[in-house]
Design brief:
This protein is about 35% helix and about 25% strand. With about 375 residues, it is α/β, with parallel strands linked by helices. It is globular.
Length: about 375
Amino acid sequence: MVHHLSYWEQNTWLEDIDHAVIGGGIVGLNCALQLRKRFPEAKIVVFERGMLPNGASTKNAGFACFGSVSEILADLETHSEEEVIALLRQRWEGLQFLRNQLGDDVLQFQQLGGYEVFLNKDRVLWDRCTEQMEYINQLAKHAISTEKNLFLIKNSSFSFQNTHKEVIFNRFEGQLHPGAMVHGLTRNAIEKGIYLLNNTEIKSFSSKNGQNELVLDGFGVIPVKNICVATNGFANQFLSEDITPARAQVVITNPIKGMPIQGTFHLDRGYYYFRNVGDRLLLGGGRELDFSAEETTENGLTSLVQNKLETLLRTTILPHAPFSIDRRWSGIMGVGPQKKPIVKKVAPRCYCGIRLGGMGVAIGSSVGVQLANLVESK
């Protein structure tokens, strides 16, 4: 179906576009805001194919984190020590930038600390993590310039079942509200005169002879000067990069009387993660049950993962607290063989900031800024 725009609509939103940002999540909005700083008079339009961000920006668990001990040890198997320090530094600095940008009140940020919980069956992993914890703390100190140890061993004060009696505590981990985060970024963008077009899908784009064009579903071809791709797990629609979509499924309970859990938690090598949201319990994960099925750009739920999440709640996390599920959803991340995001020029006046590796809350703002800073001034 072709939509016939009025002259006023075409003239206001889709003509003389200096910077087209594809993707209206945390990366795209930060990219647009940084472009406004660099180019005060430019016309900047953010195109988002969903009513709300379609990837993971408003569908994640709201962890303000930068890695558990077991995750960092796993990263050291595929990254150098210097690369891991750089990853931790980028996550830490990205979170501080986000907090300074919007403020903790807007983000509903709470630094309650994080806990890595170990199942009884994971005794070998526990031993390895605790043996290497001092080494990991030294890496973290290099990354975030602190004299304090990031990770500590604590006795578990939680009534979990089938878990080790001690946990590894992360003193700096926090939690926030992803919806409030994106709403705050959206409000800032509107105040800065940035155009936001939701429910507008870019089918493709081309860069030929110095001229860039977007093909909008139902609206035809739109010429633009610069293109910034910020679609993360959906990027393969436009680009040939080493990135794989990764769906994450989540559940949240109805309010639980006397909610026994406060903070953020990582379980079973980080394959599962949970936190309190007020007096509710949010739990996500389960991709390892069938990695291939979750390598998709289709939002949806599977009985395999959903049953596992409910079983974990019932048998391990909330064994003594009656609960019921209020809502279920999924989000699409972008992952790859390396945790390093892909931020680069891909064609004349075309750029991308993608592959956030499940750390979008921590690094999305800084990736958006880096993406905008690539755009050439002439």
